[in-house]
Structures are given as structure tokens and as C-alpha cells.
User: What shape does this take?
Amino acid sequence: MADLNRAVLKLIQALNTHNYQLLYHKKQFMGKEGMPHNLFVLSKAVWDEDKGKYGQVEVYKTTSLIRMVLYLRDMWSLEQGEELPQDNEVWNQIRKKEGLWEDN
Assistant: This one.
């Protein structure tokens, strides 16, 4: 089985070499069924002149690690000037439904 967390970190590392300043973390919350769930959050570091320090702006969040990988893969494709991959029909529908990458 693929290590999706490792894939997320590698994609973020690649994007950060292009000055994206992405941050990634995981939060946990209790679902209505009493079971803990993971929420994967991708943020961008932004400089706050008033406070004189970096803050964070949320870019994408999901409870699915594979969706995070696919989102980052899309970011990388766009960074490289390529068209968005169309090899995953489910992700294509999610991308359209959530309005991701509307410019492309």
C-alpha cells in the first residue's frame, strides 16, 4: 500500500521549492457516531504586516488523504504548465463539484 502521507509531504516540498510556502497539518475531531476522524489541512503562510509575523490562510481541507494527494498533484501540474490530469474519474467529478481550479 502506498504511503499517502509521504506523497503529500513530497508534493508540498516540491511546491515549496517554487515559493508556495505551504503548511500541512492534521486535526482530529469526534464524529457524530462517537469515532475520531482526521481532518487534513493545507494552508499557505502569509506575512501579516500589522502583527509583524506570518499567519496562515487555509487553502484546502479534507478528511480523505487521497483527496489531499490529488489536490496537490493538480497544483503541481498547474505549476508545471500542464493540463490537469484526467485519469481519475471520481476525482474529476469531485474537482468539478467543489469548484476547484475553475480557471482551467
The mean pLDDT is 93.
